[in-house]
Amino acid sequence: MASPPPLPSSTSVLSSASSLADSLFQRSLDDLIKSVRSDPSSEPSIIARSLSEIRREIRSSDPLTKSIALQKLTYLSSLHFHSMSFAAFHTLELLPSPSPQTKRLAYLAASLSFHPSTTELLPLATHQLHKDLTSLSTSSSSSSFPFLPSLPLHLLSLASSADLSSHLAPDLVPLLSRSSPLQPKAVAATYRVLSLCPSTVPVLFKPLVDCLSSDNPLTVSAAVGAFCELSAPPNDPAPYLPLAPEIYRVLVNSRSNWTLIKALKIFSRLVPLEPRLGTRIVEPLSKFLRESQAKSLVLECIKTVVSCLPTHTEAMRLAIDKIKELLSSDDDPNLRYLGLQTLGMLAPGHLWALEESREVVAQSLTDPDRSICHEALRVMMAMTLQENSIESCTLLVRQAAKSDPEFANEILDSVLTSCSKDFYELVVDFDWYVSLLGEMARIVHCTKGDEISRQLVDIGLRVRDARPELVRVARELLIDPSLLGNHFLYNVLSAAAWISGEYVEFSKDPMELVEALLQPRTSLLPTSARAVYIQSVLKVLTFSCNSHIDESSSLVNDTVIARMLSLIEMTVGPLAESEEAEVEDRVRNLLGVVRLVANIKDLSGDKDKDGMIYEVVRVMDALFSDEMGPVSANAQKKVSVPEDLDLKDNLADLSEFISDNDAAMSRSNPSILFYPQSCNASEEVEVGPTSVAESTSLKEHRKRHGLYYLSTDKETTEPELTEDYPRVNETLPLSNGDTTRRVKVTKLRPTVVKLDEGEDLATSSSLSTKVEAMKDDPLSGAIKDVLLGKKGNGASSSFDASSSSQGKGKDKVKGKEIKSKKGEEGESKDRHKGRRKHKHRKEPAPPVSVAQETPVIQDFLL
Amino acid sequence: MIRFILLQNRQGKTRLAKYYVPLEDSEKHKVEYEVHRLVVNRDPKFTNFVEFRTHKVIYRRYAGLFFSMCVDITDNELAYLECIHLFVEILDHFFSNVCELDLVFNFHKVYLILDEFILAGELQETSKRAIIERMGELENIYFRAMRFAIVIFTPWLKDLAFFSW
What we know:
Largest sheet of chain B: 5 strands, antiparallel
Number of strands of chain B: 7
Distance between the termini of chain B: 59 Å
Protein name (chain A): AP-3 complex subunit delta
Number of helices of chain A: 43
Region (Disordered) (chain A): 794-862
Keywords (chain A): Golgi apparatus, Membrane, Protein transport, Repeat, Transport
Domain Clathrin/coatomer adaptor adaptin-like N-terminal (chain A): 47-594
Oligomer: heterodimer
Subcellular location (chain A): Endomembrane system; Golgi apparatus
């Protein structure tokens, strides 16, 4: 570059001429930017033209032309998203340029465009990176450009592959161990190299640890930052326990808030592993909390105290006071947000503190900022207990009615999930909760119909005492014609219809119910809901007839029955020709019964309580009077497989009979299937007299598999006997004890039927598999192993991967010894090169790795 | 750790993008679009933190420019908020009253500043004065080198011009 290029020879005149033209008339980056900005409408065409220019220019033999082309390309690629992968080789060509400007351009282009997994040319850069990294110690020109190694450090930290990292790791060591402005940069790059390539740990770890005690505060800051990242959540912090004294020293001595924050973060990961560290750091922490002016540092202290020092009452007090300060800063939404966030972290242990700030939290729910609302909702749910559930949930639902659709549904979702958790553990007063469910369904933007309907039915099955209120709520939902237009509520309405049919005995006015179920707007309902409606009409009708015969209800008399019959005949009649099989089927059942009742009535005259009418109505009523109970999710498992049942038979032939609809329906509601059950019942009805046999077979089934049915004996509903109401619960005294734990409430909590803890099978098993998965994760334990090995071997150990793996074995053995004779300080100090002088840390034997971390690389990716 | 830094204007044009995790080009594009949508409609009175996928974005608006930083969920929000402000102060000092056009035309210098400020997603230097001093030195090097290149380049140009003439 320093000497002028040779004059063009006769053979290469053409190519030189074009290259000459390029360099003479090349547009600079400024020109490019100006032309792009001059006419925004034709931007794509301008960029396309520039790109084709660049493609030509970048092949030029003149480094200046080439570098300007690369500069333009970098601009286009980083701000206009044009791939520059085609220029990878040209970038590499420019890396060795002697001009700092060109070199910098090339490095910038490389760090912006190279991708460790897709840039195949990356290995070609190894030599140049090596040369630049070591330029200070080898080349004589170092004085003219002392910052040269910072360029490869950037590239190394951004686009390095594991391969590149392992080749260049030794070059980092001199940079790490010499105090210079480059040292902090080298530390940051080292952290990336370590996490990319655990096998470099033997080479780089000791210099990195030494940086913690460097004189340069920037180096210390960078080193603390590196350890903070290395010990971050997906990784196991245990191997860094031996570094606690060094980091403690930084915590006490450092003046930089940034460094202190990082150091606190490391401690918040180490303290749960070694509680004794807590007593050491509580003092500096309290000092920061009291004295520091920096909000960020105070925030970090609060987080650390709340998350890992809950037993230190005084520090906790301080932290809670600070949280309240944050909460009360009205002018700064950021601080209020963080106040709420930290308040939520107090949740299980210090509920009194949450309770004290209840008003602020409730007020934050109405904040215009969604982030604050979210946080407030989280806190609100965290502080909801049995005692205050009514207050909290009512407030939340009222708030949901006023909020915008998205947040309203989030509120509903969290209320629904937390109230239904552990068999409605939070709910004491089911009458209140059921009416709350009804209220939720009526909220304009409610899209949680599925969950509401599931809970309505579930409560109906499980909580006997709540049924009258359920029927009342269901009636209100059914009567309101405006709800029928909302397709989110179809499931709720269908559940309401089922409830009022199933528990019709609690209904005050059957006629009104039939009218509601048959109102004209029900034509808006989807087939499945419609079928449930019609089935419920059948149930109401049989119940009415039966109570008419018994004269048990004053509301039902001849005229009512006659009106009911004619109404049914009139509205349901046309549906007999319905195209939907589900509806048609049920309509025909219903009409069959209606005509039967009407005929008999005509034949035998009024008030005839004997003979046919009596029989038929009784039989039909008996059909529906059997109570349905919840079915345990693992009931199926308890049934032993009959020997002659072939479970391995391929059922693929059946697929043509099953529509997608059927499959979807049975999947959507696995625990409670009221729909198919009522379907069976209707078939039985149509058979008329023979249904007696069906009913007896049902009884037989009950007798044989009584375990899976709830007892329907009336006396079991007596409050004194509710303890053993579900027989299956006998095996599970725990859950009952749980529900009666809090007895401050005046109203006795009704029994919630729980079959067994296996009912939660789905969630608990998924949890356990999660844990398993954690354990089985592919081991990236390499880094930890080497760290442990390194520590165990002490300062004299050679930087050799093979020896360090042996060291790991030794260390494990040692660790066990130490555990057996706890408190032997001498040995532990010895093992740690005598660098650790703090007495607080007696145990340096980190627990031998059980939970392994996931590969680090993945965690960097978003 | 900082995952990426974005400077975007209100229209969503990216003025600076630096990623500290390797992402594919298409993914970068998507991220920039999503972050812009996330921050652009927020009221100035709202918090400066937004959750973004499994991370969080700390952003701050200066006139028409949004400075957004994506950090880990456990990171200290206030510290990064201060960090953004520091970066803006440095830019402001360097370009004396920085405006969007400065960033557009001095694309490479902005990267130079940013690289002094942050490496591998970690804050390198928290002192404004130190960075400005260092920037002076670096600019000197690059400026001098640039002139050097032109001096070499010019006689060669003359030669060639003479030859072709």
